[in-house]
Design brief:
The complex is a heterodimer of chains A (about 375) and B (about 230). Chain A has about 375 residues and is α+β, with helices and mostly antiparallel strands. Helix content of chain A is about 50%, strand content about 20%. Chain B is built from six helices and ten strands. In chain B, a hairpin with a 2-residue loop joins strand 4 (about 60-65) and strand 5. Classes of the chains: A alpha+beta (about 375), B alpha/beta (about 230).
């Protein structure tokens, strides 16, 4: 630490430049991870926050709600199966909300209509207004982002292309599906909207898209065997099955992976070049008795101080950026996410400095002799 | 246990292609505490190899070397590094100071290598530097020092760990005559007063007057020239 700090203080400019590069990389890592997190929340938060463990789809639906159609008669059967604590049906369909019969751009909002049974475990906790009720099928609970579009409790909106109109009775938070705000309706109303066209329900009695199950020890195989033509998956598999979800997350993850790999190399090369510059110095110190351990510690502690400083500055910049980002931007920072990526960056920096430490152990103390600078 | 530096029949070979170069040829030398010995010789005569082996930086091919009673020919890399730290003080060509440490820290870093820096160490370092006329330069960096001051710092550094052996490699290489005399007489003075066994490798014949004995090297062999 002694050597490390003395050198940092003596060559501020050199180390400042390294810090700037490291800060920029850390900043980019945090922003990308925040964007990735924001996007995946936008795409599937309704699904992700549901208190369900497993999902039953129609066989061949590839874990996708939009490709799956089941009868709600299966719900009662599913509840009887071993390890299943509760089962409840769910349906989803995309729609457009329209104020009255306006044709103005700003009066149309894309929404996802999620049909659930009022009072079931799938119903999200409301932050304002009232819960869903079977007696009031057109009363809906919507995501709070619709407030920004000018909707309030008691407002009624028309669904574009249908004769249905819905009334907002409550608001929920962080409920989005397929990148748009979720609108929760009772199952019966959802069926009216989703199967408005005759025959679109394929003649199934009480059609639903999927059946959500609660129960930690559920064996998907056993359920598939008991209920014919079904496919049971975990909730996270169901999230992966959402159209575009994997592709979207994969893109961000790939960028992050590349960024981390590039960071490792850039930092490693920087530290290596700095160490190479000091070969002669290290030789002198070895000649007067410094052990490899002493010099290795100097390098590692220096890299640690540089990395920690850069990461902290990067985090501050990221939160600063988040504060001035436009509201509609799908950007969501989570402390755990920032913490994880900080640790990853720190570990990468430390590992990349090991190359330099290895170099030191190979420096010959004889370098100190007979060399005039 | 014999103090000082004792080498007996030390030989060093280098492989160069298919040939075997003899850099040191059965060299024997004894330096007692309080003795200041010079080794002179043309370049390529084996002076550097001799100093590297005496300073525990290089292992000899054959022969026995004792540094203050330690037989160093069979030690591991790590043990050698420790011997260098505890028993040997190096004064190198053009002083070779660490550029980002001030004069006082140049000395204290030696203590750091051995463990921690105590209050006494700091007092000792300050006193040493004052003795060598660097009392006003404690906080100066090497780039702010003159050649003579750098070399005096290097002398102080070599004495910091209170070693028994002092090795100087061309300490006057980059100094003018007046400074060179100052530096070498200072080394001689410290060697006498602190009872160190000291060897100075040099090609500067003017400096031999300060030494008790002069050895000459020629093609790897060593012979006593003046005592």
């Amino acid at each position: 630490m002694f050597l490390a700090m003395k050198e940092l203080m003596h060559s501020k400019m050199k180390f400042l430049m390294i810090i700037i590069i490291f800060v920029l990389m850390a900043w980019l890592v945090f922003i990308l991870s925040g964007l990735g997190n924001g996007l995946s929340t936008l795409a599937a938060s309704t699904f992700k926050t549901m208190k369900a463990d497993y999902v039953i789809f129609e066989e061949g639906a590839q874990s996708s709600m939009s490709k799956s159609l089941l009868s709600d008669q299966l719900v009662a059967k599913a509840e009887q199966l071993p390890n299943v604590d509760a089962a409840s049906p769910m349906g989803s369909t995309m729609a457009t909300a329209m104020k009255e019969t306006s044709t103005k751009n700003e009066d149309k909002v894309d929404i996802a209509i999620i049909g659930i049974n009022p009072g079931s475990f799938l119903e999200p906790a409301i932050v304002e207004g009232e819960n869903l009720s079977s007696e009031n099928p057109t009363g809906v609970v919507v995501n709070s982002t619709l407030k920004d579009e000018g909707y309030n409790i008691g407002d009624t909106f028309q669904l574009d292309g249908t004769t249905e109109s819905l009334t907002i009775i409550g608001f929920v938070e962080n409920q989005t599906y397929n990148h748009v705000a979720s609108v929760f309706t009772p199952m019966a109303e959802w069926r009216k909207i989703a199967f408005a066209a005759p025959g679109s329900d394929k003649g199934i009695a009480g059609p639903v898209n999927a059946i959500m199950l609660q129960g930690e020890n559920i064996d998907p195989e056993a359920i598939n065997k008991e209920l014919s033509s079904t496919d049971t998956v975990t909730r996270s598999e169901a999230v992966q099955g959402m159209p575009g979800y994997k592709e979207e997350n994969g893109t961000i993850l790939m960028m992050l992976a590349f960024l981390l790999a590039i960071s490792a190399f850039v930092l490693g090369v920087f530290f290596y070049v700095i160490t190479m510059q000091k070969t002669n110095q290290f030789g002198i110190m070895k000649a007067i008795g410094a052990s490899n351990r002493f010099l290795g510690k100097a390098i590692i502690s220096q890299v640690f101080v540089l990395s920690l400083t850069s990461i902290v500055v990067g985090i501050l910049l990221t939160y600063g950026t988040a504060a001035i980002m436009p509201k509609g931007m799908p950007f969501k920072l989570e402390t755990s996410l920032v913490f994880n990526y900080s640790i990853i960056l720190l570990v990468i920096a430390m590992l990349s400095s090991l190359v330099s430490v290895r170099k030191i152990t190979k420096i010959d103390p004889l370098k100190a002799l007979g060399r005039v600078e | 246990m014999s103090k000082g530096l004792h080498m007996r029949e030390v030989t060093m070979y280098y492989a160069e292609g298919n040939n075997r170069i003899t850099a040191l040829d059965h060299v024997s030398i004894s330096v007692e505490p309080g003795e200041f010995v010079a080794v002179v010789g043309p370049s390529g005569s084996g002076k550097s190899t001799f100093l590297s082996i005496a300073g525990a930086m290089l292992k000899a091919s054959e022969g026995d070397i004792q540094l203050n009673g330690n037989h160093i020919s069979k030690l591991t890399e790590k043990e050698l590094s420790n011997i260098r730290l505890q028993e040997v003080g190096f004064i190198m060509q053009s002083s070779n100071l660490v550029p980002y440490l001030n004069v006082l820290d140049q000395l204290l870093v030696v203590k750091r290598m051995a463990g921690t820096v105590k209050k006494e160490d700091k007092a000792f370092a300050t006193k040493l530097l004052e003795e060598l006329g660097l009392g006003l330069k404690l906080k100066s960096f090497p780039e702010e020092l003159s050649g003579g001051e750098k070399q005096r710092t290097a002398i102080a550094r070599s004495l910091m760990n209170n070693p028994n052996i002092i090795l100087a490699d061309e300490p006057t290489a980059s100094l003018d005559t007046k400074r060179a005399h100052e530096v070498v007489s200072l080394i001689a003075q410290e060697v006498k007063s602190r009872q160190k066994a000291a060897i100075m490798v040099t090609h500067d014949e003017r400096m031999l007057e300060y030494c008790d004995k002069v050895y000459r090297m020629y093609d790897g062999g060593m012979s006593l020239a003046k005592s």
